[in-house]
Design brief:
This protein is α/β, with parallel strands linked by helices. The chain has a single domain, classed as Rossmann fold, CATH 3.40.50. Helix 3 links the parallel strand 2 and strand 3. The chain is globular, with a radius of gyration of 18 Å.
Length: about 270
């Protein structure tokens, strides 16, 4: 994956969004991401380290190597982790992993396959560096799982723009539903996928802010320029759609979205 394929961009706002997303979803996504002390873990596509923080804090006895293709993101990740000694950050491409065969006990991928034109190839590359009986964890979203109330044709359209822009860049915003066949076709066995649904209403103000506003809507807003320049939507429809998304975050509104967490064995 080249940096230009990252649909959300590398702005400071995106860095903040990734942090908000990780904080809001940490328990939902990571409560069962636990490794035995001494486990050697490879995290692919760590970005700014938003997920690395939780991976490391929940597994203080594990040795974690986190890679990303963006040197800028890696520097932010190092600053985020501070003095943590259990994580080594390296600039590397998932398709050309600089490690020997069967080197790691576990491989962890979170929100990376959706950005890749060849996710199956990436999984095969990850499998190569896993020891026999080593395990893999993959977490992805699926923008097609989203709905809200009240929902309008304009709010649906701006979310579809996110899917369409990502497809133009070679990615797949609907990849969550594909995790089982992708891992199985890459040669992993004992593949299990568990949906992790985020439901938000007025009784959950922390998620209204942390997920609906600061994660999901911020993610959609981030592709405005590309959506307009590609002719996927006009400005008036965009403005109405974004306003309608925010309308669904009011006390009588609801939001719902599903993530998918897959595990497999080499």
């Amino acid at each position: 994956m080249t940096e230009s394929r990252y649909v959300h961009g590398y702005t400071s706002r995106e860095c903040d969004r990734l942090t908000n997303q990780a904080n809001a979803l940490s328990e939902l996504l990571h409560h069962d991401t636990v490794f035995a002390p001494g486990t050697l873990v490879l995290e692919c596509g760590c970005g700014t380290g938003a997920q690395t923080v939780f991976l490391a804090s929940r597994n203080p006895g594990a040795q974690i190597v986190s890679i990303d293709i963006s040197a800028t993101s890696l520097e932010q990740a190092r600053l985020r982790m501070g003095a943590a000694q259990s994580v080594e950050f390296l600039e590397a491409n998932i398709f050309e992993l600089p490690f020997d065969d069967e080197h790691f006990d576990h491989v962890f991928l979170c929100f990376i396959l959706e950005h890749l034109a060849a996710p199956a190839t990436a999984l095969s590359a990850a499998r190569r560096v896993l020891r026999r009986d080593g395990t893999i964890t993959v977490i992805e979203g699926d923008h097609g799982s989203w709905y809200c109330y009240p929902q309008t044709k304009e709010s649906s359209r701006v979310v579809q723009c996110l899917v369409d822009v990502q497809a133009r860049l070679g990615g797949d915003g609907l990849i969550g539903r594909r995790l089982y066949p992708l891992l199985a076709s890459a040669g992993f066995r004992e593949v299990q996928v568990s949906p992790r649904m985020v439901y938000v209403d007025g009784s959950r103000p922390d998620l209204v802010k942390g997920f609906s506003r600061d994660t999901f809507i911020a993610m959609v807003e981030g592709i405005h320029d590309r959506a307009i320049s590609l002719g996927l939507i006009d400005q008036r429809t965009w403005d109405k759609g974004i306003a309608d998304l925010y309308r669904a975050t009011e006390p009588d509104g609801t939001f719902c979205y599903s993530f998918f967490k897959a595990k497999g064995t080499r």
